């Protein structure tokens, strides 16, 4: 009993210490600047991402601490949880709980690129969240697919081909934060290798011809990059002379 009580007190002390550090590194300029990036600042302190990342590196991976930081509701503490979270220990249920509370694109993307994409549950979550009606849950599905395209070096082509199916299915979603993540996921898959580039370009062409305006934007915007000389050369292909 004493040990359990001491552990809880120690965790509370760690959370308070992290909050104190964050408060000492806040600036009004950072807080005011959040609005320019469509990030709510109601529960924010105004700490630069580079400082949050530095604190996360200092603290290391501690999933229990990450969960406690998330529960504070403080924007920077929740962002810090993405660096402190342990990909081997976070559970699918915990990922679902956090994802349902995302209320801005920064949570979606930061959590995906720093934590979610390193978990063994990542691919299942892409599929599961992609059919959500909630804007930021659906955004997270495609931010995670985008992140996996960049970071999962061991995956073969098949999960990304399946990801293209999800992208095509969601391409008509006109909500700003969803369509941008869908577009980024498509572009990221198409830059992974030549085979996936061909598959992504073929799908982007179909979207570009869609009667749906949002799907057309997703397709045309992706095509500009995926068929560019820079991407073709990087993938080892030959650039056609115009």
How far apart are the termini? 76 Å
In the residues, how many domains can be counted?
A: 2
What percentage of amino acids are in beta strands?
Answer: under 5%
Structural class comes to: mainly alpha
Order of helices and strands: HHHHHHHHHHHHHH
CA-based shape: elongated
Largest sheet: none
Number of H- or I-type helical stretches: 14
Using the coordinates above, name the CATH class of the largest domain: Mainly Alpha
Measured on Cα atoms, how large is the radius of gyration? 20 Å
Number of DSSP E strands: 0
Mean of pLDDT: 95
CATH fold-level name of the largest domain:
Leucine-rich Repeat Variant
CATH architecture of the largest domain: Alpha Horseshoe
Low-pLDDT sequence parts: none
Helicity, as a percent range:
55-70%
Walkthrough of the structure:
This protein is an all-alpha fold. The chain has helices at residues 2-24, 28-33, 49-59, 63-71, 75-84, 92-101, 105-114, 122-130, 135-151, 158-170, 176-190, 194-208, 213-226, 229-234. The protein has 2 domains: 1-86, no CATH class; 90-236, Leucine-rich Repeat Variant (Alpha Horseshoe), CATH 1.25.10. Helix 9 runs parallel beside helix 11 (176-190) and helix 10 runs antiparallel to helix 11 (176-190). It is elongated. The relative contact order is 0.07. The mean pLDDT is 95.
């Amino acid at each position: 009993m004493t040990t359990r009580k001491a552990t809880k007190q120690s965790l509370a002390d760690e959370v308070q210490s992290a909050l104190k550090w964050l408060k000492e590194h806040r600036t009004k300029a950072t807080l005011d600047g959040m609005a320019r990036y469509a990030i709510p600042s109601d529960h924010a302190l105004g700490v630069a991402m580079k400082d949050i990342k530095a604190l996360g590196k200092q603290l290391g991976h501690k999933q229990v601490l990450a969960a406690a930081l998330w529960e504070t509701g403080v924007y920077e503490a929740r962002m810090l949880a993405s660096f402190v979270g342990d990909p081997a220990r976070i559970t699918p249920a915990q990922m679902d709980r956090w994802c349902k509370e995302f209320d801005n694109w920064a949570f979606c993307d930061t959590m995906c690129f720093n934590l979610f994409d390193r978990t063994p549950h990542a691919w299942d979550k892409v599929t599961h969240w992609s059919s959500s009606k909630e804007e930021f849950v659906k955004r997270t599905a495609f931010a995670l697919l985008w992140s996996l395209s960049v970071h999962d070096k061991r995956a073969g082509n098949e999960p990304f081909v399946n990801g293209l199916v999800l992208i095509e299915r969601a391409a008509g979603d006109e909500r700003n934060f969803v369509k941008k993540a869908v577009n980024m996921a498509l572009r990221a898959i198409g830059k992974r290798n030549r085979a996936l580039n061909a598959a992504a370009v073929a799908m982007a062409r179909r979207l570009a011809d869609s009667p749906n305006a949002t799907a057309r934007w997703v397709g045309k915007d992706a095509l500009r990059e995926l068929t560019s000389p820079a991407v073709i050369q990087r993938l080892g292909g030959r650039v056609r002379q115009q």
